[in-house]
Amino acid sequence: MKEVQGVRGSEIKRHYNFLSHYLVVFLPFIFFLLTAYAENPHEQYKQIQKDLKSHKKKLESVKKAEKSVIEELKKTNAELNEIENQLTLQRGKIKKIQGNISALQVDINRNKENLNLQNNLLKKRLRVLQKMSKTNDALLILMSGEDISQTVRSLRYISDISTYDQKLITKYKETVNILSEKQNNLKKLHSELKTEEEKLSRLETSLKEKKKERETLLVSVRKEKKNYEKMIKELQEASNRLLRIIQESERRESELRKKKGAKPKTKEEETVEDSGFARLKGRLPWPVNGTVAIQYGTQIDPLFNLPVFRSGIHIKASNGTPVKAVHEGKVVFADEFKGYGQLVIISHGSGYHTLYGNLSKIFLKNGVIIKEHTTIGEVGESNAIGASGLYFEIRYKGKPLDPQQWLKK
Q1: How far apart are CA 31 and CA 345, in angstroms?
Q2: Which of 78, 232, 312, 331 has the fewest Cβ atoms nearer than 10 Å?
């Protein structure tokens, strides 16, 4: 039983919640890479390759955990089979003892019937003797024979009968006592076996519960493995798309160098590019009123002991709370995003972007130019914190920055 320890269900649950949060944080990053590829595509491609390697390591760890749980299940099944064999043997012993008790009970009943017959015979003899004593004819009856020898034989006969009856009674009493003692011993043994059976039954129940626990754990591990495999697949697809984007970017840059000039930008686009976002570090307004539930930065995965980077913060806030842009800019994405709910990404020029996730509603469209404090949507539910809240990121040329260093204290 001591071997059946393994990875505890509570650790799996904590890690699964952690994984759900990581998926929520990472999937928008994939889209962000695709929207900001022109700024630093080579660095982003390297980062995705690094993430792929890290998640493949995690997947191997999950596979090992799955294999370990399967081995523990095999051990548990073997223990269950052994307990069931012991239960079968114990039930057989109990059945045999019950048969012995039944046989002894029949024997006791038979001896009781014999005892009743002997008692009836002795009662009859006692009544005869009582009549003889009342009439004082007992001695006359004995002496009524033709000779003394006959009288002596009669006396001896009566004495033998009394002695025989007494022996029968004594023997029967001894037999009853012996059988009663055996019956008591068998009842005690039966009680002991019943206690042992209850003990084995409890052990069987415990093992079945352990088996159920291990099966639940196996389901969790396999589900987690499936999530990691899915994540790796999405990373690989993003890596391939980004590689194509890099190649296309290089091709366009080559063509642009051959051209004499570029098309002039609009006034609104120039305003976005010159928004001065870089000078606002530590002075940006908060996108929503609330408290930070999950911090930015690298943390160690508790199950796999591998570092996982959180690119933004989760701000706990009431459902339906208005979410506002921290600075003027251009909406480059405003739509549902897989694994993340409603998502808005705003470009503030000079390589700066802000990302707003877990929205229940979006009030803006892709491509519009907005001002600071513009309401972009409302807070929705967050899988990462198990409550309503906003996910918020700040990025510079694809690289995540700590939002709390940029927001007002």
Answers
A1: 10
A2: 78
pTM exceeding 0.85: no
Higher-pLDDT residue of 125 and 349 is: 349
The answer for residues whose C-beta is within 8 angstroms of residue 186's C-beta and 6 or more apart is 97, 100, 101, 104
d(CA 369, CA 221): 46
Q: 50 Cβ partners below 8 Å, 6+ apart?
A: none
Task: Compute the C-alpha angle 359/364/367, nearest 5°.
Answer: 125
On the CB side of 148, CA atoms within 13 Å amount to 0
Q: Which pLDDT tens digit goes with each residue over 283-304?
A: 999 999 999 988 898 766 544 4
Take residue 1 and report the two structure tokens written for it: 């039983």
The CA distance from 87 to 205, in Å, is 12
Give the single-character DSSP code of 49. Answer: H
Residue 300 three-state SS: strand
C-alpha 311, offset from chain centre: 30
Instruction: Give the pLDDT confidence of 2-61 residue by residue, as tens digits.
Output: 443 444 444 444 444 444 444 444 444 444 444 444 445 566 566 666 766 766 676 676
- Partners of residue 372 on adjacent β-strands: none
**CA gap 222, 224 in Å, rounded:** 5
Q: How many residues does the chain have?
A: 409
Q: Where would I find the beta strands (DSSP E) of 255-328?
A: 291-294, 297-300, 307-310, 313-316, 322-324
Domain segments of the chain as ranges: 14-262, 266-409
What CATH number does the domain located at 14-262 have?
A: 1.10.287
Return d(Cα 164, Cα 173) in angstroms, integer: 14
Q: Find the Cα–Cα–Cα–Cα dihedral 347, 351, 352, 355, rounded to 10°.
A: 60
